[in-house]
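Posted in: Structural Biology > Protein-Ligand Complexes

Title: Requesting predicted complex, guanosine-5'-triphosphate in pocket

I'd be grateful if someone could produce the 3D structure tokens for the following input. Sequence and ligand are given below.
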Amino acid sequence: MTSQTWQSLCDKRYRLSLRLFLLLNAISALFSMALPLYNLRTFTPPVCIIFVLSVILPAWHKFHPKTKINISFISLLFGCLWAWHVVIRARLLSDNASTYLLIALLSVLFLGAIAFSNNIVAFLLHSFPVFAACLWFDGAENGIRLIFTFALPVIGIAIQQAIQRRNDNFARALMQRLMQESKTLNDLSMLDPLTGLYNRRGLQHKLNNLLALDDSSCFVLLLDIDHFKAYNDHYGHMMGDQALIRVSAALRDAVRSRDIVARFGGEEFMILLNNMDLEHARQTAERIRQKVYDLDIPHMFNESVATNVTVSIGIAPLQDSDIDAALSLADKALYEAKHLGRNNILVSGDLQVA
Ligand SMILES: Nc1nc2c(ncn2[C@@H]2O[C@H](COP(=O)(O)OP(=O)(O)OP(=O)(O)O)[C@@H](O)[C@H]2O)c(=O)[nH]1
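-- Reply #1 --
Done. Output follows.
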């Protein structure tokens, strides 16, 4: 889930609440016209307006889903219309007005509580006009009862909204954390745990991004530590790992941050140099070779090459974004470089020794 889907969830909640509110109002208005209390059949103008608006607005919203209907405004409008309706009816029912007012207030509160259980503002705007009308009409006799009837759901909905807000904040924080962790895991899955360089998956990912932008003047370097089997056999696997870590750091150090350095296999590395001509690619390879040499990691079994750890490098240009073809050429050049005595650099199609 992203912040966008969170927003769309909130929008959906808003739409549902609005539709429910209009539906309940339409039903209430219809009920009030068809089966009025005390059989007082009066089609008051406000109840007719409520019914018409409740039917028209959802239909209009369906065709204009992007336009946001202001819930506060609508709830206040409907609240005022209901208050108007209640006053008209109460005037006609002078004898039974108290009971009618209480029932009318309860109905409006009930309707608001269902539609706006998490929106105290809309609930207040919708029910307060009716509450004020009831109080004005019958305040002297039933004031306390009316206040109690109104205050109870207001307190309940305020608490409910506070709980909901806390739950929302918790869910949002959880979602952000999960997104962050998923990103971290994704990043980690692209790195080689021993050296911290990109693994093959990370390399592929970087290549996809890079080559989508520009593949002009790119060079692939394939590097292999010389006689690493002998190093492992004599110094042990742990020391072999330490050597790999130090060589990896030297490779990263020797290139620009825009170049991609990946551990390609056991003691084999790949570097993609971008935006560079052949001469500079060759110079970079030489700098890498020298840096590894200068690490001065003892390797007494680096047969007839040196007494420390060295690397051989094959270079090939990247053409037509064909990374496999470039790798294949670089691999051949590396193979030749090894044959020429190791601690060497060779450009594909070129037998020049560094
Ligand atoms: N310590 C350690 N050794 C590894 C790792 N991955 C591969 N190796 C070793 O790297 C050695 C690679 O040896 P070879 O492919 O025979 O090549 P080499 O001995 O380097 O000989 P040349 O490449 O011809 O110079 C093997 O002994 C592997 O066990 C690793 O993660 N840690």
